[in-house]
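Batch job 17 of 40 flagged for manual review because the log was empty.
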Amino acid sequence: MEIQNMSKDEEIEKLLESVKNITSKKSDWEFKDSFKPQYTTGKGLNRKVVEEISDIKNEPDWMRRIRLKALEIFEAKPVPTWGPDLSGIDWENISYYNKPGDSNTNSWDDVPEMIKDTFQKLGIPEMEQKYLAGSVAQYESEGVYHSLRKVWEDKGVVFMDLDSAIREHPDLVKQYFCKAVPITDNKFAALNGAVWSGGSFLYVPKGVHIDMPLQTYFRMNNEGTGQFEHTIVVADEGSSVHYIEGCTAPRWDKNSLHSAIVEIYVNKNAKARYTSVQNWSKSVYNMPTKRAWVEENGQMEWVGGSLGSKVTMLYPSSYLRGPHASASNLNISLAGPGTVKDTGAKALHFAPYTTSKIVAKSISIEDGKAIYRGLLRINKGAVESKSHVQCDALLINDESASYTFPHDEIYEPTATFGHEASVGKIGTEELTYLRSRGLSEDEASSMIVLGFLDDVMREIPMEFAIEMNRLIKMEMSKMGAVG
């Protein structure tokens, strides 16, 4: 939504048009399938389960060894206690691997009918045809479909689910797997290393500029399950790419766990953008680890929207490893009723003349709790490096809460660093003004929220921005009157 160079009245009319186009009907992603997995390892996690996953995938020995070592690390590391309460994760009653069917195909016609119907409801085939250079679809623990337009395939681009990439490009995958995010990084990274399944592998060769986004869509359908995809994106020297991730799950009574890893490698003079819109149900603990290595003159852009979930802990990080490397992180977080969003970003400057920018916007509704937790480090020797951090919070009710825990370490005296934060509430004057123009209280509140988010929303692809507008409006409408 572009509102620069507009008068105040024009800006309001633009936002009004957006709000009125947003429907408050039940979102399409909330439906549940009756589809049952073809194969499951059952509840609980032990060495036998990990070996079973490796066996069914017919993996090479090096991957089996990583899995078993990761299991040892997972079992040895304690559950983190420095953030939200994670005692609701019932480790012994989670199903860690659910195989939806036999095939992984590049033709929608070959996808099992029930799964195909699910992704058609979510609009995946239509988006692929209109907007995407390629797509991967994952249902439960496995990729069920992947495709890439021939023009990019002919230029050497590799884009498929990670399991297929290990079979078809084992040396290329091994070069990057668990390098940026080692299995020793944290308990949830170790868990992913032990039981990962699915995810995607994207490699863009030197000098190739992909002018359309590539997308992966993850669907977790059953209750009491875990989804543990592992995604690797490599932008080789002088290339550019935009990768989009979407995630949904229906609402269940039993808690589920999402613990993904995303590794992004931005090589010299390359550019990568990673856009993620996650809308998990209120029964999901969302605990991913996302990290980018950015080399000389590389550019990394993170754009994220986090909605839904019971608890989310998410801090995409950028390691600026080469001179003149840069990273930006734009994030929207919506903490609805009964949810905790502990989100933020990390930027670590290891080289001279590096730059980073972090903009985090959070909204808390009813008793929702939004937390910004960030890390900014500029090492000694990262001369003339610059960083700016901005975190803004909007509280909708007296019961809603927002907390900020920035952690800044500046070891280089020539560095430039700024941090700003703001917390506000929807004011009576703004509501009165908008209602005088014919809006209901809910519409006026939604308009203020969308205006608050605008500088991030305009960076999200149009199709995802429209869906995020719908979801924000839906959350607002559940509250009734806002005051």
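Reviewer: the log was empty due to a logging misconfiguration, but the result itself is present. DSSP finds 13 helices and 26 strands in the chain. Unflagging and moving on to job 18.
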